[in-house]
Amino acid sequence: MRHVVPQRVADGRDTSVAGLAARAAAADTADPLAHLRDQFDLDEELVYLDGNSLGALPTSVPSRLREVVEQEWGRGLIRSWRDAGWWDAPERVGDRIAPLVGAAPGQIVVGDSTSINVFRLTVAGLRAAVGRDPRRTELLVDGTTFPTDGYLAESAARLTGATLVPCHPSELVDRLDDRTGLVLLNHVDYRTGELWDLPALTAAARGAGALTLWDLSHSAGALPVGLDRAEVDLAVGCGYKYLNGGPGAPAFCYASSDLQDRLDQPLAGWCSHADPFGMEPEYRAAKGATRLRTGTPEILSLLSLDAALDVWADVDLAEVRRKSLALTDFFVSCLDALAPPGSFRLLTPREDGRRGSQVALECDDARAVMATLERQGVIGDHRPPNVCRFGFAPLYTRFVDALTAADALSTCLRARVGIGRA
Ligand SMILES: Cc1ncc(COP(=O)(O)O)c(C=O)c1O
Ligand SMILES: Nc1c(O)cccc1C(=O)C[C@H](N)C(=O)O
After folding, report:
1. Is pLDDT of 157 > 50?
2. Residue 193 region, left (φ>0) first, then alpha (ψ -120 to 50), else beta?
3. Which residues are recorded as modified (N6-(pyridoxal phosphate)lysine) (predicted)?
4. β-strand 345-346 against 234-237: which pairing, if any?
5. pLDDT 10s digits, 384-395
């Protein structure tokens, strides 16, 4: 680290760049997950803080994909649906994701995109709610949600005749009543990184007689989720963010075992049929999570995700959470120490219990700021209008990366307000 800046000592610690660098080095040395970085193919010239959009490439993936393409497809051909286990891969890979989100086996299938699965489970959840109690025609949706969830909720409401009620997660408890059928929420807000209290909100919805559908895109693989323990009804999650399945990797769908056989999903294709190879003209839904499948599984990307999951063997999710919180907290402390006062507004809560695994902040000209950082080898995201977003994937991000990014961002913010380094 090159320069020394005036020290603003908030907690009695050395907050010069040199002091922060010493803290980062000590934290990386003590990190029990540090060895996992070797299982990723990372460009050492880059600081990659975008694993919440596209996870890094696990070293297990290229050789496995080569084998799938050359042997299973090339030599095995059609026989691989049976002999290489392709047909059951959606359930098998689902069972590998299950422990990462606190689910017992048999409740997750992998396939299609998160968007498709949001639609599938929103319609299925609304139908199940109304089937149980015809008054339950309202769909409560996080009004700040990632747009695709909002668009698809609207479409699901049009299709089912449900009434869409946008609602901020902080107001959910007051909005629940005996008309609420389904609640669609995000575990971690894609923009601010705020973590919502999944057990408490699920219990509130359940207590009011409503079903829950959680979007885990920004939490699966970043923190413990505890779906079964919280008695969540339905959930979806992304395969290409913290699970590192690769661009366009399929998403996953969770349906609690209590609910599965009551689900009437809208995309009832042949792969969700009780006897797909019977080729019956009439539809009969399969038992279990299999009824959430639709068509032929996307084997190449599904098996890429499968291989990417190898990295989780023996990983303790509590340790992942501890590291994620320490990384995000350290990044914010570095910004507090190095960036000009008032040059940014933190959007992510500082309280550990309310933060996912990213840090988002608002500043002037955020798009240009993130473009400058990218030219310097620090990759994060810009989200409109003026949000800079930095994702901290705990399996491969180091404390030194957090400092390098905070230092580069602070330098950029300092230049924009016309202050040089001291
Ligand atoms: C919270 C959330 N839900 C859904 C999606 C949509 O995922 P996909 O484009 O893979 O359908 C994303 C990201 O793209 C997301 O962040
Ligand atoms: N899915 C993406 C894509 O295909 C291109 C660029 C970004 C994405 C994303 O995943 C966006 C992401 N869900 C977000 O939280 O903003």
Report:
1. yes
2. left
3. 241
4. unpaired
5. 999 999 999 999
Helix ranges, 139-197 (H): 147-160, 172-175
Within 10 Å of residue 419's Cβ, how many Cβ atoms?
Answer: 11
- Is 240 assigned a catalytic role? yes
Q: How many CA atoms lie within 13 A of 132 on its CB side?
A: 18
Residue 182 C-alpha to ligand 2 middle, in angstroms? 25
Q: What's the CATH number for 87-312? A: 3.40.640.10
Helix (H) / strand (E) containing 181: strand 180-186
Name which of 396, 410, 417 is nearest 46 in CA terms: 396
Consult the annotation and say whether 168 binds a ligand: no
Q: Is 241 a catalytic residue?
A: yes
Given a contact cutoff of 8 angstroms between Cβ atoms, the answer to whether 96 and 306 are in contact is yes
How many C-beta atoms surround the C-beta of residue 244 within 10 A? 29
- Please answer whether residues 339 and 362 qualify as being in contact, where contact means their C-beta atoms are separated by less than 8 angstroms: no
Structural domain spans, the chain: 17-59+316-416, 87-312
Three-state DSSP class for 124?
helix
Atom of ligand 2 nearest to the CA of 218: 15
- Using CA atoms of 43, 46, 52, 57 in order, give the dihedral in degrees to the nearest 10: 0
- What is 17-59+316-416's CATH number? 3.90.1150.10
215 an active-site residue?
yes
Catalytic option among 389, 396, 407, 414: 389
Residue 191 contacts residue 356 (beta carbons within 8 Å) = no
Q: Binning pLDDT at 50, 70 and 90, where does residue 343 land?
A: very high
Q: Can you tell me the distance from the alpha carbon of 133 to that of 178, in angstroms, rounded to the nearest whole number?
A: 9
Atom number, ligand 2, closest to the C-alpha of residue 247: 4
Q: How far apart are CA 264 and CA 59, in angstroms?
A: 39
Packed helices 17-30 and 399-416: angle between N→C axes, nearest 10 degrees? 160
Asked whether the beta carbons of 341 and 180 are under 8 A apart, the reply is no
